Amino acid sequence: DAGVIQSPRHEVTEMGQEVTLRCKPISGHDYLFWYRQTMMRGLELLIYFNNNVPIDDSGMPEDRFSAKMPNASFSTLKIQPSEPRDSAVYFCASSQGAGGANVLTFGAGSRLTVL
Amino acid sequence: AQSVTQPDIHITVSEGASLELRCNYSYGATPYLFWYVQSPGQGLQLLLKYFSGDTLVQGIKGFEAEFKRSQSSFNLRKPSVHWSDAAEYFCAVGNQAGTALIFGKGTTLSVSS
Q1: Mean of the per-residue pLDDT values for chain B?
Q2: What is the pLDDT of residue B42?
Q3: Test the A interface: residue of B99, B102, B107 with most A CBs within 10 Å
């Protein structure tokens, strides 16, 4: 398996633009997680899905953020409109079984810079 | 509230010296504990995990960690550090209920020659 695949690896955009980050989890994994990493706040859980259903989105910063998982092999995290404070590295991770009791496999991350 | 604290933001050790990275957690239930490592520009990779049983767990790359319930700690150790160990290290806590992992803010390890 190629692991968790994220795209794009780097994104530079201007404030107000829409940003879409993509994730392909490992085949057979039934949990998918989106984390955001910043220097100030470390790794923050944004949202996670189980069998394509959002379970906990309490970490999503505000209504500008949305995430979908239309099928078992694809998820998106969208920011509209983007702001400079959204600049961060966004990680997708997947696991087989409950995330707390099983190993997360992380993607390489998408580094977002909002000017 | 559940939380993970890594008291040391940055640690520098000499190559060949021993290493201990600290991790303290606050968790109401029996915790599942993890250490992950992140190399520059990469995602996180699991080093080791503790679910139950022997409180001293072995991981990859020669790392080990000891769970001490009385101290709410799960410190990571390595007897002899190599230059390739320079990275950021994250402690995380979870449980069997299926909630997502909570991560500490990380400790950056630098290795001097």
Answers
A1: 92
A2: 85
A3: B99
Distance CA B85, CA B105 (A): 18
pLDDT value at position B27? Answer: 83
Question: Is residue B8 classed exposed, middle or buried when 0-12, 13-18 and 19+ CB atoms within 10 A define those classes?
Answer: middle
Contact criterion met (CB < 8 Å) for B49 and A99: no
- Does B95 sit within 8 Å of A100, measured CB to CB? yes
B5–A contact, CB cutoff 8 A:
no
Mean pLDDT throughout B59-71?
95
pLDDT tops 70 at residue B96: no
3-state helix, strand, coil in chain A (%, to 5): 5, 55, 45
pLDDT single digits (tens) A62-107: 899 999 999 999 999 999 999 999 999 999 999 987 655 678 899 9
Confirm or reject contact between B100 and chain A (CB < 8 A). Answer: yes
Interface membership of B9 toward A (CB under 8 Å): no
From chain A, the residues in CB contact with B104 under 8 A are 42
Both structure tokens of A35:
């984390």
Is residue A72 classed as helix, strand or coil in its secondary structure?
A: coil
Q: Which residues of A touch B106 (CB under 8 A)?
A: 42-43
